[in-house]
Specification:
4-stranded antiparallel β-sheet, alpha+beta, 9-stranded antiparallel β-sheet, globular
């Protein structure tokens, strides 16, 4: 086993338990808009972050270079409210919960306060996977090293020749997603990754919510293009839907070994550089890197750099003993937790899900190129045949998800109602 694979295994497998309890971890990102359709006033949102600690009892966990609060923490629930890349996007990262209702209750409390405060300045949070007025905003990163590094790194796309990268390196400032983390075990994590890779077409159909006004892209999920045709997607193993199912753990970590390392810290300073595959990293004699102020320096690879490695795959192992599902656009506010319930129910019903996927009629005609299937079924207009096929596939998965939630016996099935209504499935069980 190569040293790079050893380091990746240590990073991603260390905290996976043999028999974990199943908790739910939810992250929700939202654009903040000016209700008059103008640019979002970042001062309004910064003011919100100065206001929230006093009314919610949160502590200020991080500030930007100018002393503005940018990350707030509730010491009891471990909920975090933070800026995501820019001052026009707010993220709610909830502490792990035993059921979805716990999270929903706290989310409603936060939103009541936030919407009221933003409303006083004619602003609001909306449930969209893309900021509708992105073109009017400055789309600058939060004045904090991690976000500045990320934005500067993405701007390297303008210097990469011979590739079909898009010209929106600032996209991180205006796209928003809905992520869920669920506990997995050493015996099932690969099964979970493989099973959920196979259902990305249905997820595209059910949860698409990020059409982009800046280009004539035939997709309702611009986030896929933004990610895959950016610096993050130079190595296809680094981002998006996995290109294959994995035979075993070694096969998976070989795939992860082809993902990228593009940043390192030295003496408290953050540097970025053109991506290097994890497998090649330690053998690279020297790296031409950039500091946040644009200075160029030479870096020498170190094993500790693997401690900040992360991939951007849609079924992503975390360092917390969970899998993060990250392909879903931010959802309309009236179906905030539908995607969470969908993933949770299917995970609980994993055995049945796997059995169904082995013989699912959908794949007989559509094939099993899971990456291209997601793109195909996120198109703005489907043929009648495509529509019929994906609806049936989605219905079958929804039934399995509801069965899984029934097994949990925590009354979480209600969160699937918007999806059931959309598919004409009002009475499943």
């Amino acid at each position: 086993m190569s040293r790079s694979v050893e380091l990746l295994k240590k990073r991603y497998l260390e905290n996976i338990k043999e028999k974990p309890d199943l908790f739910v971890g939810i992250e929700l990102e939202y654009p903040v808009i000016n209700l008059e359709g103008k640019a979002t006033n970042s001062e309004v949102v910064k003011d919100l972050f100065r206001y929230l600690p006093s009314v919610l009892g949160f502590t200020i966990e991080k500030v930007d270079d100018f002393g503005n609060p940018i990350q707030l923490l509730d010491p009891v629930s471990q909920d975090t409210i933070l800026f995501e890349v820019s001052y026009t996007t707010i993220e709610f990262a909830f502490g792990r919960a035993e059921n979805i209702q716990e999270v929903e209750e706290r989310f409603r409390d936060y939103m009541d306060l936030i919407q009221k405060k933003l409303g006083e300045a004619n602003h609001a949070i909306i449930g969209s996977g893309i900021h509708p007025y992105w073109e009017k905003n400055e789309n600058q990163p939060v004045a904090y090293a991690r976000y500045q590094m990320l934005m500067n790194y993405l701007k390297l796309s303008r210097t990469v020749l011979g590739t079909d990268l898009h010209d929106y390196p600032q996209y991180g400032a205006f796209i928003c997603g809905s992520q869920v983390q669920l506990d997995i075990s050493k015996s099932n994590y690969l099964r979970v990754i493989n099973a959920f890779t196979q259902i990305e077409a249905a997820k595209a159909f059910l949860f698409a919510n990020s059409e982009f006004s800046g280009e004539d892209w035939d997709t309702k999920i611009s986030r896929d293009i933004f990610w895959e045709e950016s610096m993050h997607g130079i190595y296809p193993e680094n981002v998006g839907v996995n290109s294959r199912l994995f035979k075993d753990e070694n096969d998976f970590f070989d795939y992860l070994d082809h993902s990228a390392i593009f940043t390192a810290e030295r003496d408290g300073e953050t540097y970025y550089f053109y991506p290097i595959r994890a497998k090649d990293y330690l053998g690279t004699p020297e790296i031409h890197a950039f500091a946040l102020d644009g200075r160029e320096i030479l870096l020498y690879p170190q094993e500790k750099d693997f401690q900040t490695h992360r991939s951007y795959q849609y079924q992503d192992l975390t360092t917390r003993g969970t899998i993060e599902f990250r392909s879903v656009c931010t959802q309309p506010l009236n179906r905030t937790f539908a995607a969470t319930a969908f993933h949770l129910g299917l995970l609980v019903n994993l055995n049945k899900l796997e059995a169904y996927l082995r013989t699912a009629p959908f794949f007989t005609t559509a094939g099993r190129d899971y990456k291209s299937l997601r793109r195909q079924f996120s198109k703005k207009k489907l043929t009648d045949q495509e529509e019929a096929a994906i609806r049936e596939f989605s219905k079958d998965l929804l039934i399995l998800a509801e069965e899984g939630l029934e097994k949990r016996d925590k009354q979480e099935m209600i969160y699937l109602e918007p999806l059931k209504k959309e598919l004409g499935l009002q009475f499943l069980l």
